[in-house]
């Protein structure tokens, strides 16, 4: 599907674009709220400033994509491949990133308040100055990620802690 056909169908009211191939497309600033892009190929796409709030991107390939300043609040990002993606200043408030692959992704100044990070691959990722307040972090290897000046004072984690609830509040170790 080419970009013109995609936008035409979206503007007609279609929201199911599961499995669509949009490799390298320019969707800067596009309003795609609530769209279903599950299993889609958006590798190397320019989605900077795009509104993808409440979108379904489960199992999508978004490697090396530009998502600077994109709104992904409340999005389903389970099993998404974001290797090498640029998510600087992205809004990921309340997003579900369970099982996501964010290796070498740039999340500098990203807002991850209340996001779910369950078994996320973050090796080599940059989370400098990111906001992780009230984020749920479970079985995620954070020490291998760049965390300079990351905020969030308290992050819920089930890696160790309260036997009754299986979770604990952990200090984020601000600098």
List keywords for this structure.
5% helix, 175 residues, 5peptide_repeat, 4-stranded mixed beta sheet, little secondary structure, 1 helix, Low-complexity protein, 4 strands, Pectate Lyase C-like, disordered C terminus
Could you walk me through the main structural features you see in this protein, from its secondary elements to its overall organization?
The protein has 175 residues and is mostly loops. Residues 160-175 have low confidence and may be disordered. The protein has one helix at 3-11, and strands at 116-118, 136-138, 154-157, 168-171. It has one domain (1-157): Pectate Lyase C-like (3 Solenoid), CATH 2.160.20. The longest helix has 9 residues, at 3-11.
State the order of secondary-structure elements, H for helix, E for strand.
HEEEE
Unreliable residue runs: 160-175
Shape: globular
In this structure, how is the largest beta sheet organized? 4 strands, mixed
Number of strands: 4
Enumerate the strands of the largest sheet in spatial order, edge to edge or round the barrel.
Answer: 1-2-3-4
| SS element count, helices | 1
Q: N-to-C terminal Cα separation, in Å?
A: 47 Å
Helix/strand-derived category reads little secondary structure
Query: Share of helix among residues?
Result: under 10%
Strand content: 5-15%
Compute the number of structural domains: 1
Instruction: Please give the CATH class.
Output: Mainly Beta
Briefly note the CATH topology name.
Pectate Lyase C-like
As a whole number of angstroms, the C-alpha radius of gyration is 16 Å
Q: What is the residue-mean pLDDT, rounded to a whole number?
A: 87
- CATH architecture, by name, is 3 Solenoid
Protein name: Low-complexity protein
InterPro entries: 5peptide_repeat (IPR001646), Pentapeptide-BTB/POZ_domain (IPR051082)
